[in-house]
Design brief:
The protein is mainly β. 0% of the residues lie in helices and 57% in strands. The chain has no helices and 11 strands. It is elongated.
């Protein structure tokens, strides 16, 4: 090797896998999988759920990143519970490279009105959980 050889720099890749946790909540999100679909696993102190494809709603917001949501439960005539995680844009060096991530997840309880005449007041209640973990680029 000569003295003026240029070191090989691994290519920069966008992260496509996020492993996040905080306060008893664990979220694993991949923008693609072996089936070509997004996947998200959600685990808290009472349940463990897996989502893929159209069960995952994604909105890209230029000033935030991706807003990724799933429906955790639906109760007829009562409402539903959803979970949303803010996925920041992250770049890593090469395949398998990783970077630390700090973000938030929001659990929302959507209350149904008891009748059309009682459609007053706040119907969505939010619980924010700070999440941290790693983002990396994996081959699928």
């Amino acid at each position: 090797m000569s003295g003026n050889a240029t070191p090989i720099v691994p290519p920069i890749q966008p992260a496509n896998h996020y492993a996040l946790s905080g306060h008893g909540l664990h979220v694993d999100y991949a923008t693609t999988s072996i089936s070509g679909q997004r996947t998200l696993t959600y685990h808290d102190h009472t349940r463990s759920l897996s989502f893929s494809g159209n069960d995952i709603r994604v909105v890209d917001v230029p000033d935030i990143g991706s807003v990724v949501s799933v429906t955790l439960s639906i109760t007829v005539d009562v409402g539903s519970t959803t979970f949303t995680v803010l996925i920041p844009p992250v770049t890593v060096s090469g395949i398998g490279g990783s970077a630390p991530v700090s973000t938030d997840g929001v659990t929302t309880m959507h209350k149904m009105p008891l009748g059309p005449q009682l459609n007053l007041g706040q119907r969505d209640l939010y619980h924010v959980t700070h999440l941290s973990g790693t983002a990396n680029h994996i081959l699928t």
